[in-house]
Automatic annotation (TrEMBL):
Its main location: membrane. Keywords: Membrane, Transmembrane, Transmembrane helix. The lineage of its organism: Bacteria, Bacillati, Actinomycetota, Actinomycetes, Cryptosporangiales. Residues 1-66 are annotated as: Disordered. It is a multi-pass membrane protein. The chain crosses the membrane at residues 77-105, 126-147, 153-175. Residues 15-30, 39-66 have a biased composition (Low complexity). Pfam families: MamF_MmsF. It comes from Cryptosporangium arvum DSM 44712. This is DUF4870 domain-containing protein. It is found in: Membrane.
């Protein structure tokens, strides 16, 4: 059996006293701030041990090299404006394509002129084609009702055309924007300047 008070194999460890730390007390019975044997050191220091050599206290030192590049999220917001419009068209039935360009316009448009130009262009296009889709749906349903359903055979092309045009030009604009090119949408009214 080994002696519990014997030094460790490397001689650097100091064993804990068998009975635990002893705290000297004053006449009132409370611990004093003396430096008697067995009292614990400053806050955070392990009892009876020194930190290993080479490890400084506190925060790690900063690394070498260039500082990190600031994040430029312009391209992300361009993708939100264009491909988000396409997603709104697909999910929202052609009438919700304007939501993502509006989010890009209101969140980054005031501070970033590139995002503002792209989001205004996408917003104008998707508002125009949302209006065109509503008109196409009204014509489709009214024409179908008047012709007792036979008009639906011909008029179903109108809502489908608004869907295809919105998706196709939105994808083209998104691809151009990912290559840092501005794409002026065709067939759109300039409602927002």
């Amino acid at each position: 059996m080994t002696d519990p008070n014997a030094p460790g194999p490397y001689g650097s460890e100091q064993p804990y006293p068998a009975s635990g730390p002893s705290y000297p007390t004053s006449s009132g019975g409370s611990p004093t701030s003396g430096g008697a044997y067995g009292t614990q050191g400053p806050y955070g220091a392990p009892y009876g041990q020194q930190p290993p050599y080479g490890t400084p206290y506190g925060q790690p030192q900063p690394g070498y090299g260039y500082p990190p590049k600031p994040v430029d999220d312009t391209k992300t917001w361009l993708m939100v404006a264009h491909f988000g419009g396409v997603a709104g068209v697909v999910v929202g039935g052609t009438v919700a394509g304007w939501v993502a360009p509006l989010i890009a316009y209101t969140s980054k448009g005031p501070t970033n002129p590139t995002v503002r130009a792209h989001s205004v262009e996408a917003l104008n296009f998707h508002i125009t084609w949302a209006i065109a889709n509503v008109v196409a749906l009204v014509v489709f349903f009214c024409g179908s009702a008047v012709t007792l359903g036979f008009g639906a055979i011909v008029l179903w092309v109108l809502p489908l055309a608004t869907f295809v045009i919105s998706v196709a030009f939105g994808i083209i604009a998104g691809v151009k924007a990912s290559n840092n090119e501005f794409y002026p949408y065709p067939l759109s009214m300039k409602l927002i300047k």
